[in-house]
Amino acid sequence: xxxxFGGLLAAACVLALPAAASSLTxxxxxxxxxxxxxxxxxxxxxxxLRTACPPAPEGACQALGAVSLQWQILIDPQNxxxxxxxxxAAAGAIAANAxxxxxxxxxxxxxxYLAGAxxxxxxxxxxxxERLAAxxxxxxxxxxxxxxxxxxxxxxxxxxxxxxxxxxADVAPMYAKLLRWLLLLPGGDRVKGLQEIIxxxxxxxxxxxxxxxxxxxxxxxxxxxxxxxxxxxxxxxARYPAxxxxxxxxxxxxxxxxxxxxxxxxxxxTLRDRARDDRVAFARLIExxxxxxxxxxxxxxxxx
Length: 304
What we know:
Helices cover 76% and strands 0% of the residues. By secondary structure, the protein is an all-alpha fold.
């Protein structure tokens, strides 16, 4: 972890930068749409997107449209019916933002949204086990974000994706490191990456909720900090109660990492009740999932 000292210094230097006007056009409007997506209010987000661009950049709206599909897939990963629509939406967003970078190569937010257009595609490629394609697209994200930060070091949301790259490039298993070598990507830095993600979470304007979600995964998978992960998930669930993923992950942390059967069951019962009252997205699917999990918990207790 000694190599992380340079990362801490870099983060400290960035934190010392003076406050400036937002680097992203109409960011409050776009952040409200992102909040609707994180709350699994997908119809509302779609309606907001229809009126947001203009004045917000068209490439930003197209990227958020792909993000919406990505979150719908995350809620119901066994259903592949949205995979092709997401690929088409991402392709359109990539084309729109690539054209923007060609028109305005010195515009940092154009490069930021180009990276953002690739991000949902990478998430789904990872979910589907498409490792080489995910690595190729991940390199494009890294290159675009590095360009954005060269142009505007105060575009704090861009540190989120760069931080994820630095973190995972350090902790990734051997097959992923081989892909990195094949693609001529530099090595990672776990501590620096974590600092960059936290910087985006604290000072970014668009990706704070997304940063919380990704950060909780690092805490449970690699950092052995399940209580910190739980705090992030509870905050997400309080802000976005219609999205079942956060309460599902709370149940998983209690079960897998804290071994608290009672709290696990309470989380699944709470989610089942929300689903029965139509207070979560994909309510019937989530009710059935919660019922199944509660039966599995009861069967495990019966065997003890």
